Amino acid sequence: MRNKGLHYVNPRLSKQISELVDQVSNGSIRLKPDEIPYRLKKMLPIEKMRRETVCRRVEGYFHASNLLFEKLMENRRKDRKQIIDKAKLKPMGYYHYFTGSREPADYLKTRDDLLNDPSTALVKLSNDIIGMACLLTDTEKTEIELEF
Known about the structure:
- With 148 residues, the chain is mainly alpha-helical.
- The chain has helices at 11-26, 36-43, 51-76, 80-86, 92-98, 118-147.
- The relative contact order is 0.16.
């Protein structure tokens, strides 16, 4: 996942994901933060016995979490550490033990290793998306309250 290009998500799907993130960030669509992974799940269905569909979902979630992180960085002028603390983002090792993964712990050292254990990666990315979306919507509410 270190390469900048998307391997499993096609450009049309990538555009749909970025439009969803843009709509959530600018407030044109009202979604609860925990509904965003559900919407992504509908966009990225998994077909039985096809590993590339699982990889597509993991990469789609990864893409959405990166877009949300970028939105928080540019719109809210917070530094990386603040976003990680306030969105309660956890390291990959936490989710390795949290999900009871049977994969070796060395497989999940960084975000680049997400495709090594997709089930753990989906749990982590879902929680990351929800945490960053909560932070994005909370920040918008406090800015609106400050204007009045």
